[in-house]
């Protein structure tokens, strides 16, 4: 393969600021690949002002950047999303489809890159009907699995009907889309297994979850009464996790540890959730978006992951383990991760067990420090981001060979 092979990378989201797990994973992969076997052209929605503001960030992950107009935001965007419920495509996919984006991608493909990557299943809606370029789909989740779990926990008849309808559409779209690509990249063995079982996908390439261990240094979890949660709060799964934790788990914690505090770190916390914490007089803080999570998460005693719905790999779990607080999670929260409950984290699936685990850790500094050190060692051994980038690069090289053979 030529050392100057071109890789076209199509993302449905502008990658900066890096404020979600998907953006973190994508930027780490691109940063690790830059200067390697491919010359990288990145495409995504962006305004000229946004691209100019993040010029240095873009230079760190690609050799060339091209954008298309960003989608409508505010009330217009909300109205569009509601209307898309009636489309034949699942709503999150339909939201990402635009004529301007598809035209820009078609022009870039006409320049004959050596391989094209579509980041997230949703981005494939921008691909032409016929893909002649060797192609990779970078899946961060099994999307239908997430929809199925939303259906399981939905309480109202109306929401169950919506999730059932969306699940049917997503299963059809996900299966048809994965079959179009020369290579499927998954982020866990569990995702690879589900792709094979549900859609007949053979040979999906699994990349390890990467953590920038130089950036996420370890701080001993010595702030004895601090609990944190880290995750984008505009994601329904995280909103549900925090409502569950507030209603079912937190009362049992503060009954025994009245001085305990909770910090929710992540962009766009729902106003209703913030107001409810204030109404109850809870010692909860919602940071919203922060440029750097390390001063908040590092040093906290416990990092909770009370997810009831989720998919893919939970990058924030590994980052928390790297930074120091002991992770207490549901099984869904660490699903697919090679962690060991009682050794480098604690897994607790009901409210009482989770509250008991948090209280015990708040009370036992020495035990907490030992588990924190074990978690850091685990991340250092399993989760270096350079390894993830090299693995992804190999998947692209493999697609190049298969695409040319086709």
Description:
The chain is an alpha/beta fold. The protein folds into 2 domains: 5-210 and 385-405, Rossmann fold; 223-382, Rossmann fold, CATH 3.40.50.2000. The chain is 47% helix and 16% strand. The chain contains 16 helices and 13 strands. It has helices at 21-33, 48-53, 55-59, 74-83, 91-95, 99-110, 143-153, 157-178, 189-199, 236-256, 271-279, 294-297, 315-323, 351-363, 365-382, 385-405, and strands spanning 5-10, 38-45, 64-68, 115-119, 135-138, 183-186, 205-206, 223-230, 261-265, 284-288, 300-305, 326-329, 346-347. Strands 3-2-1-4-5-6-7 form a 7-stranded parallel β-sheet, sandwiched between helices. Strands 10-9-8-11-12-13 form a 6-stranded parallel β-sheet, with helices on both faces. Helix 7 (143-153) packs antiparallel against helix 8 and helix 10 packs across helix 14 (351-363). The protein is globular and about 65 Å long. It starts with a strand and ends with a helix.
